[in-house]
Specification:
Helices cover 73% and strands 2% of the residues. The protein is built from twelve helices and two strands; from the N terminus they run αααααααααααββα. A hairpin with a 2-residue loop joins strand 1 and strand 2. This is Cobalamin biosynthesis protein CobD.
Length: 331
């Protein structure tokens, strides 16, 4: 019974990845948008400018969808077809790799065409930096950094937690990551209230970010890079970033692409000076396209690994059941 559930999970995750590759994000009735409205309602009832209130908010906003996902997984434990469909739809909704790569390619097209106004208008689709004063090199850098970081957040993270914990893992990860985007940033309103969400997101991404970096190293030849150089830059520069996770992905991407990332970032009234990652020159539009291609390859590899892990667990469960049966018959 357990192995059938795990097999259904593996097939569902694979189908969800295929749906994302074919269609990108659902254009209407996106479940993540619905979760955002639910989280905003919880925030209205729990907000206070203090960390304990933020912890309560995070517990409710994450706990409710995870509990519902666990219930759905239990209800479909003897219905492999229904479970496969449920996991497929949830995986599709949780993944954002195809849309991420598409946004990166759009930015590359606008930069290639010299249309800075359109390129600046495109940047908010990728990150929260103020694009108003950015030139082509800074727009290219922001895009490459966003694509590298979000390959973990939008692809590898949900697949990793799906491989580890099935449907509740996919739902829980997407809830945590969405809360971080909503309240985890540094602002007057969320400096304390958003701490729990931000720290939980850091914890949830500790392993996925490093898996993303490792897959980026392996995939470097696809974009003309060298795995050895990508590995060297990742190990040297991954810890320089203020985020414990983003720097892993960005450093590996810088090494794979042979470029230099980092520098001055403006977020509204807040300015951050980020350390440089990598040894090459600043990214150009061609590097934006390469980053998008690298993200697609890393995402495909992560999908294959996640499905293999879940299917492998099914095989081990089946083998364990046969062994137990043999022991019982011998006794």
């Amino acid at each position: 019974m357990v192995n059938r559930r795990l097999q259904a999970d593996a097939i569902g995750m694979l189908l969800g990845g295929v749906l994302d590759a074919m269609f990108g994000d659902p254009r209407r009735w996106h479940p993540v948008a619905g979760f955002g409205r639910f989280a905003a309602a919880v925030e209205r009832h729990t907000y206070a400018d203090e960390r304990p209130a933020g912890a309560r908010f995070t517990a409710v906003a994450v706990g409710v969808p995870v509990a519902l996902a666990a219930m759905a997984a239990w209800l479909t434990r003897r219905r492999p077809v229904a479970r496969t469909v449920l996991v497929a739809g949830t995986t599709w909704a949780a993944l954002g790799g195809t849309s991420l790569a598409r946004e990166g390619r759009v930015m590359a097209d606008r930069l290639d065409g010299g249309d800075l106004a359109s390129a600046r208008a495109q940047l908010p689709n990728l990150c929260g930096r103020d694009p108003s004063a950015l030139g082509a090199p800074e727009l290219a850098r922001a895009t490459v950094e966003s694509v590298a970081e979000n390959t973990s957040d939008a692809v590898v993270g949900p697949l990793f937690w799906g491989a580890v914990a099935g449907l509740p893992g996919i739902v829980g990860y997407r809830a945590v990551n969405t809360l971080d985007a909503m309240v985890g940033h540094r602002s007057a309103r969320y400096a304390r209230f958003g701490t729990a969400s931000a720290r939980l997101d850091d914890l949830a991404n500790l392993v996925p970010s490093r898996v993303t970096a490792a897959l980026t190293v392996v995939a470097a030849p696809v974009v003309g890079g060298r795995p050895g150089e990508a590995l060297r830059v990742w190990l040297r520069d991954g810890g320089r970033h203020p985020s414990p996770n983003s720097g892993q992905c960005e450093a590996a991407a810088a090494g794979a692409l042979g470029i230099r990332l980092g520098g001055r970032n403006v977020y509204g009234s807040r300015v951050e000076q980020r350390p440089h990652l990598g040894d090459g020159g600043p990214p150009v539009p061609r590097d934006v396209r390469r980053a998008a291609a690298l993200s697609v390859v890393v995402g495909a590899a992560a999908l294959g690994l996640a499905c293999a892990v879940r299917a492998g667990a099914a095989s081990r469960s089946r083998a364990g059941g046969r062994a137990a049966a043999r022991v019982g018959s011998a006794a």
